[in-house]
Amino acid sequence: MSTSHEGRADRADRGTDGAETSARTVTCANCGRTNRVPAAAQGTPRCGNCRAPLPWITEAGDADFREIAEQATLPVLVDLWATWCGPCRMVSPALEHVAERLAGRIKLVKVDIDKSPGLARRFEVQAVPTLLILDQGRQVARQTGAAPANALRQWVDEALSASHGSADSASGRPS
Ligand SMILES: [Zn+2]
């Protein structure tokens, strides 16, 4: 039973190749294997060992938002936050839990508005945190200000089912 021995895992945290834009290390909740998840990729990240979907949590700025958020093939939860914002520090872990629970269904992209003035202007950010849900680059939901974790979870669930409901309407026709 040694067919899975590949010796690739040792290279996971060296990251000196520099081929990808940026990658972060994610431990698979299903099997415990450490995986490198790139900031931008086709489809959704899966565990190299057991193929379970991995939570996709990344950061973007003015320069790479298009590639990382708008070109994603799954819905994107955008967290527009600032380092000086106290409520943001409570909201961010709640959003990370949402991204973990909805692994394979949503991508979480964090944007520091002080480093990304272009995005702050574009999304007309008046207060932080401002949360957006984008589907193929189109804004389908928006929420401003902090909210309890369960309220955030419910908001994301409703936004996801609403954006998918419209896409499914064509297939539910009786013949
Ligand atoms: Zn796994």
What is the element layout, followed by pairings?
Layout: E1 23-27, E2 34-38, E3 56-59, H1 65-70, E4 76-81, H2 86-101, E5 107-112, H3 117-122, E6 130-135, E7 138-144, H4 149-168
Helix pairs in contact: 2-4
The protein binds zinc ion.
In short, what is this structure?
The model is unreliable at 1-20 and 166-175 (pLDDT under 50). 29% of the residues are buried.
Task: Pick out the low-confidence regions.
Answer: 1-20, 166-175
**Portion of residues within helices:** 25-40%
Evaluate the radius of gyration.
Answer: 18 Å
What is the total tally of β strands? Answer: 7
How are the strands ordered across the major sheet?
Answer: 3-5-4-6-7
Structural class: alpha/beta
CATH fold type of the domain at 54-164: Glutaredoxin
Give every kind of bound small molecule, once each. Answer: zinc ion
Order of helices and strands: EEEHEHEHEEH
CATH level 1 name of the domain at 54-164: Alpha Beta
Q: What would CATH call the architecture of the domain at 54-164?
A: 3-Layer(aba) Sandwich
Individual helix count: 4
Distance between the termini: 51 Å
**What does the largest sheet look like?**
5 strands, mixed
- The CATH superfamily of the domain at 54-164 is known as Glutaredoxin
Could you report the average pLDDT, rounded to the nearest whole number? 85
* Residue fraction in strands: 15-25%
